[in-house]
Design goal:
This protein has 148 residues and is of the alpha+beta class. It folds into two domains: 10-98, Adenine-n6-DNA-methyltransferase TaqI, Chain A, domain 2 (Alpha-Beta Complex); 99-148. Helix content is 45%, strand content 11%. The strands form two sheets. Strands 3-2-5 form a three-stranded antiparallel beta sheet, covered by helices on one side. Strands 1-4 form a two-stranded antiparallel ribbon. The termini are far apart.
């Protein structure tokens, strides 16, 4: 955490969140910003705080909000806007895949594993690109090292 201060002296409209809430960025929804809060806090006006009903998994809701299906719907609803904002009524109109409550933990576990694999592969790809970009200068340096 970069910085923190006590809640209470803020100005303007801010939404309070608590652990287990899902924070969804509605400004430029194509950026697909979704976070399951792990602490109490306030967020800016360009984010909604979604508090799942009892028995609804915040992690499953977050996975659903990050899904390509929800992203496509959000983009379709806001694509004509210069500065797209997914208003609450539009967000409420978005449909997600129904998951039986008894299956939610298993589905979340699978989705977490897939997400972690994708993140790990992306990190490996970044390292691969960095190594490949350093290869040519290294080879040239080695080739011309004894010519001075």
């Amino acid at each position: 955490m970069l910085d923190s201060s006590p809640i209470g002296n803020e100005k303007g409209r801010k939404f309070r969140f608590r652990p287990g809430d899902v924070v969804y960025g509605y400004l430029r929804p194509y950026l697909n910003k979704v976070w399951v809060a792990d602490r109490d806090g306030l967020c800016s006006v360009d984010q909604y705080v979604l508090r799942p009903n009892a028995g609804v998994s915040a992690e499953l809701l977050a996975h659903q909000l990050r899904s390509m299906s929800v992203l496509d719907q959000a983009v379709d609803l806001t694509h004509n806007l210069q500065l797209p904002r997914l208003r609450s009524g539009l967000l409420a109109a978005i449909t997600v895949q129904a998951v039986r409550p008894e299956s939610a933990a298993e589905v979340v576990g699978r989705l977490d594993r897939v997400r972690n694999l994708v993140i790990a592969r992306a990190e490996l790809r970044k390292r691969q690109i960095a190594a490949a970009s350093a290869l040519m200068p290294s080879l040239l340096n080695q080739a011309f090292a004894g010519l001075s």
